[in-house]
Amino acid sequence: MTDEGTGISSSPALSANGLGKRFGSRVAFDDVSFEIGYGEVFGFLGPNGAGKTTTVRTLGTLLTPTAGSATVAGLPLIPDNGVEIRRRISIMPESPGLYLRLTVLENLQCFADLYEVSAARDRIDQALQAVHLTERAHDTCGSLSKGLKQRVALARALLNDPQVLFLDEPTSGLDPVAAREVHELIDGLRQRGVTIFLTTHRLDEAERLCDRVAILNTTLRTVGRPDQLRDELFARTLNVRTVSPLSNPADVFLGVESVSGWREDGPSTYVLTVTDPALAAPGVTRALVKADADVLSISVSHHSLEDVYLELIDVPAGLS
Ligand SMILES: Nc1ncnc2c1ncn2[C@@H]1O[C@H](COP(=O)(O)OP(=O)(O)OP(=O)(O)O)[C@@H](O)[C@H]1O
User: Fold this and answer.
1) 217 CA to middle of ligand 1, Å?
2) Counting CB atoms within 10 angstroms of each CB, which of 44, 127, 225, 272 has the fewest?
């Protein structure tokens, strides 16, 4: 569905409603619901065995769901739509699955034939350019590093110019430089308006790349923007350190705009719960100066997506 005049689609690129998949008595994932807009980069996080790959394979029409419903690239996920959905999407699996004795170009030609890509040579050239591999087109895939193989797999996933791209752990096993290159490629795809469904164990990756993330552990634990999840789960705090203990901290802190509580966190260290750190910090500074306190530092505490993840996933005792 397209909004008149704007050309922008108003229906979600991907949606799931109570979606589930079980293998016999084993539940791979259950009761998963979300909506993803066109052009969004959506992170799908969860521990080993959480059901991420099975969700991707189900949305990618490779497995049939056992519960719920979904739409993929604007089409209901039903067997009759399988061919058309596969035409509109691509899946880049965790392992590249290339023919190692064939060159990069031959691999792409092979897959372009398989996918019946029209104007194949142009699409291959565009895909090679998108992943910066034009120079390596005639190298055999067996001679490429893991990071370069991953780029070939990404080029293959781009051959059909997908509306929705599923990336299953695209940086698994890559060194930081190769991972950063993949991140830059994903950024480039986002700028071209490709909707990306990204499964990853790397929380820094999700935080850097994703507009929103979902945390899955067989069922969905939460969906939201990383900063929104942090704010929902953790109170905002200011950390104040002074040279010597304050004689009456309550008198100093309470009454400052935006400060709703305080506690001591060791000698001369105070943690203040605040509604808005940007408002609270200058007020607290003024109050400390007025009380003649020698201030060592005032800092806003930052929670990472990892904190959110660990809070929501049941981590076995002793591991957190
Ligand atoms: N074909 C299958 N037959 C039976 N069980 C399966 C099958 N595929 C997956 N499972 C089970 O479904 C659950 C979810 O697996 P899945 O591979 O989707 O998890 P994941 O989140 O992708 O894990 P990882 O991060 O380790 O790749 C696991 O318990 C797994 O053993």
Assistant:
1) 11
2) 225
Q: Are residues 134 and 176 in the same domain?
A: yes
- The answer to whether residue 8 is domain-embedded is no
pTM of the model: 0.80
Q: Ligand 1 within 6 A of 23 CB?
A: yes
Containing domain of residue 262, as a range?
A: 235-302
Instruction: Looking at the CA of residue 53, tell me the nearest atom of ligand 1.
Output: 22
Select from 27, 29, 54, 200 the residue to mutate for testing ligand 1; criterion: most ligand atoms less than 8 Å from CB: 54
- Residue ranges in 141-272 assigned as alpha helix (H): 146-158, 176-191, 203-209, 226-233, 249-253
Q: Are residues 29 and 117 in the same domain?
A: yes
ipTM over 0.90: yes
165 and 21 within one domain? yes
CATH code of 42's domain = 3.40.50.300
Whether the CA torsion 289, 293, 299, 301 is positive or negative: it is: negative
Ligand 1 center–CA 40 separation, angstroms: 26
CA of 27 to the centre of ligand 1 (A): 9
Ligand 1: residue of 29, 32, 44, 53 to mutate (most ligand atoms within 8 A of CB) is 53
> What's the gap in Å between 54 CA and the centre of ligand 1?
6
Using the structure block, give the residue that is written with the tokens 């309550």: 250
Residue minimizing CA distance to atom 4 of ligand 1: 23
Indicate if 67 and 210 belong to the same structural domain: yes
pLDDT tens for the chain, 320 residues: list them: 444 444 445 689 999 999 999 999 999 999 999 999 999 999 999 988 999 999 999 999 999 999 999 999 999 999 999 999 999 999 998 888 899 999 999 999 999 998 888 888 999 999 998 888 999 999 999 999 888 998 999 999 999 889 999 999 988 878 888 888 888 888 888 888 899 999 988 888 888 889 999 999 999 998 999 888 877 777 788 999 999 999 999 999 998 998 999 999 988 999 998 888 888 999 999 999 999 999 999 998 877 788 888 878 865 544 44
Distance CA 93, CA 170 (A): 8
